Amino acid sequence: MGNHAVEPFGHSSGKPEKLRLREKIAYGLGDVGNNFLFDLGQIYLLKFYTDTLGLPSAAAGLVFLISKVWDAIADISVGTWVDNRKRIGRKGKFRPFILYTAVPLALITIVSFTNPHFTITGKLIWAYLTYMAFGTIYSISNVPFGSMIPAMTKDPAERAQLASFRQAGSNLGLLISTVGFMPIVLSAHNNTNGYLLAVSIFAVAGALIQIISYANIKERYAEEKPAEAKMKMSDSYKAIFKNRPLLVLCLVNLFTFSAFNVKLAVQVYYCQYVLKNISIVPYMGFFSMGCVFIGCAIVPFLSKRMGKKATYMLGCAIWSAGDLAAFLFAHNAVTFIAFACLAYFGSSFVNSLNWALVSDAVEYGEWKTGQRSEGVVYSFFTFFRKVSSAVAGFVPGVVLSFVGYVPNAAQSMKAIAGIKGLMFIYPGVLAVATIIVMAVWYKLSDSRYKEIVAELNARKSKGHILKTDLQTKEVSL
Fold first, then answer.
1. Closest C-alpha to 93, from 174, 157, 164, 150
2. 325: domain CATH number?
3. Which one, of 423, 406, 419, lies nearest residue 51 by Cα?
4. What whole-number distance in Å separates Cα of residue 186 and Cα of residue 242?
5. Closest among 151, 219, 88 to 375, alpha carbons compared
6. What digits encode the pLDDT tens for the residues 182-213?
7. Is 5 contained in some domain?
8. pTM of this prediction?
9. CA atoms within 13 A of residue 195's CA, in its CB half-sphere
């Protein structure tokens, strides 16, 4: 007996139901809520660890490395769990995870930014425990959320739109986090209270937005495993390693997500110690994220004209040009913000298309191996993104330690050079590496994808006809 589609919301088997604008916005809002929680760790937690908690830079970087590797393993486990769910109820296959993790995720986010009265060793253990707990709960929430697109629609155009709405939501969450967080921190009497106040506001808002998203999205094509069928994890991952487009996407995301997150983590240091004005962080965030929204808006148009692969590579070229130009010519706040806008504009092409390309990889994997595993595909992809996040947290900590960074003090020329290299050279070079890998190894064009979908539909239609014929023969006998 094969997999069968579940239609918990009363979707008929006639003409496929088109997604309403309200649902697309609701899906995008889900990533606003996610990023209110996730981005706080990516942007501010390293600085909180070094400047408020008092951890050595290298030790703080190691917290990110080990915690993110743990997260990556959690993603794999959650993806397998989701794919093997049985007896799916009216809430759906993926949606319940969003609902039930919203409040615990908000609470652990707040706890991660507390400054307990422990020794340095005790604080280091506290950092490990809280951030690993955050990562585990975030995996249980985010892997099903990201796996939902193939279950919401089979229309490639609608999938691209959902990916764009999701990226717009991610960017809006990042924009608000960048613009709004530090002013709240700086408004308090000390950093400990400021961080706790700011993170509490963002965590509560993030949980509420996730619940709103859950209430306004639907699953139409969730694949439920029959009671007697359980896919072995070994079989799932053997199938993954035959999915070449997915493997290429995983590799380039090691580059791009690491580059993006290093920029997020280091920009606070750059503004405070290189430009000597931490108050420009909100302005930089406002203008650069504004350019990201422009990029997200034109990605569907460019993808239709150029194809997703060419648009992805164009974004990397713009990103690299912005960062390398900033390294050479950004000597004040105005030029820094201008080049940051260019780099973030280019990165928006990459980040917008990632989710659409992963959805394409689900169909490619099903066509190649006969196994459809949204959760495993998505979790394998996010495994590499978590590994890149681990690198992005570890590398700045190690580099800051190597160049002699001293918290809350004037920095040496060596430290300044290290911060500038992390901010511009590291992401610029990795953007160029992404272009090379995509050009040489990514072969799933938009036209080829359409052929694969048509062949899959033909297979399923033939299987349905054969099943109907068998049932008719059984009745006649």
1. 150
2. 1.20.1250.20
3. 406
4. 51
5. 151
6. 889 888 888 888 999 999 999 999 999 999 99
7. no
8. 0.71
9. 22
